[in-house]
Amino acid sequence: MGVGGALSWLLALALAIGLALVGTAHAAEPAATPIRLALIESLSGPFANTGEASLRNLAWAVERVNQRGGVALPASRQPLALLRYDSNGGVEGALAALRSAIDDGARVVLQGNSSAVALALVEAIDKHNQRDPARRVLFLNYAAVDPALTNESCSYWHFRFDAHADMRVAALMQLLQDDRAVTSAYLIAQDYSFGRAVLLSTRRELAARRPDVRIVGEELHPLGRIKDFVPYALKIKASGAQAVVTPNWGNDLTLLAKAAAEVGFTGRFYTFYGNALGAPAAIGTAGIGRVVALAEWMPNVTGAESERLYAAFRTRFPDPRQDYLHLRYQLMIEALVQAIERAGSTRIDDVAARLETARVSMAGSTGFMRADDHQFIQPLVIGVMDRQGTPGVRHDVEGSGYGFRIVRTFAAEQTAQPTTCRMVRPD
């Protein structure tokens, strides 16, 4: 896509979401005060595509709540309003955005695409809430999966709605455990807290489940700064690895997958996020039967409720480039609405107390918040890339012609792991 095409697409996206938010405001009573939610995300730079996907999912979730009249409170129904702040992909930008969001009246912060940013936000919000109890803030995390966030760095004001890295690795390694053709693996990740946590967890799980699998290479690379992954792909191929385990996300995954296809690597890719954001199209036919991805939901999950939800999302965002529905974002907003309605108030202390015991269902999937560490427990599925139209692959992703056939499903209780969190609750 040329620069002009990219700008046109981004303008169309902004216009579509802007119209959605304006339209949803009309669904509520005009005089109602909106409940402001602040999205702090990378909306520019190398990971803008992940930020845009988050924005679409959250805008749609907000729109759906407002279309049914908003949040039911004792005195009135209040609409949700989604405010957007560009972190530029960094900690400093995110902290500046947090200050602006609080000044703009937002009391719920939404973020996920960077564990380093999430850890900084947790620390800043803890300090703010202690210093300024009249303007306390909740942090809802939909994608930052460093295990520390619900273990040693857990916070009463932070709630995670994605499975953390150890939970994800454990599920993926259960599939690899049964893949007896794999006897060697190469580990590669982005060099920051999340990537390092995944490599540590992968080594531990492999040692326990498949001690016969040799780790023939292990690599950490700069986050969002590599433009050409061919040198990395050549090292992977030369190592003789039969599988690659990577938690890479965004452009770093897309470029790695593309480079692997270019150099003729024929092993399997065990990924956290290989089911969208350009990765299937980049790797093409070389990924059939070889790219494995993990998520809380995928379009080819069977069931009438799942089909209806996906059809509604594609109707709302028909452009194939905007096709990446995250069920957890929808569950997160529904859990927040449920907590506010159960509290009968938007007072953050009351909402947090109800959010600790949230239980929500959608598309045939039910998840619940664990009060001990504020980790959301939900089902997980593993899919393997295949051509659309093959058995089990009704839907492709992003118009690529490739989709993911579900090969393993884990019930919510099967995904849970112990926590070391020592939750400090406010007086």
Describe this structure in words.
The chain has two domains: 3-163 and 306-377, Response regulator (Rossmann fold); 166-295 and 379-415, 3-Layer(aba) Sandwich (Rossmann fold), CATH 3.40.50. It has helices spanning 3-27, 48-67, 91-103, 115-131, 165-177, 193-209, 230-238, 251-263, 279-283, 304-316, 327-343, 348-355, 412-415; strands spanning 35-41, 71-72, 77-78, 80-86, 108-111, 138-141, 158-160, 184-190, 214-221, 243-246, 268-271, 291-295, 359-362, 365-370, 375-377, 380-387, 402-410. The radius of gyration is 21 Å and the shape is globular. By secondary structure, the protein is α/β, with parallel strands linked by helices.
What labels would you give this structure?
427 residues; alpha/beta; Rossmann fold; 2 domains; five-stranded parallel β-sheet; 13 helices; globular; disordered N terminus; signal; BCAA_transport
SSE order, one letter for each helix or strand: HEHEEEHEHEEHEHEHEHEHEHHHEEEEEH
Helical/strand content category: alpha/beta
Count of DSSP H/I helices: 13
Average of pLDDT = 92
Spans of at least 5 consecutive residues with low confidence? 1-12, 19-30
- What's the CATH H-level homologous superfamily of the largest domain? Response regulator
Radius of gyration: 21 Å
Instruction: Describe the main β-sheet briefly.
Output: 7 strands, mixed
Shape: globular
Helix content: 40-55%
Question: Might you state the CATH topology name of the largest domain?
Answer: Rossmann fold
Return the CATH class of the largest domain: Alpha Beta
- The assigned CATH architecture of the largest domain is 3-Layer(aba) Sandwich
Number of strands: 17
Beta-strand percent range = 15-25%
Q: Tell me the span between the first and last alpha carbons.
A: 54 Å
Strand order of the largest sheet: 9-8-10-11-12-16-17
Number of domains: 2
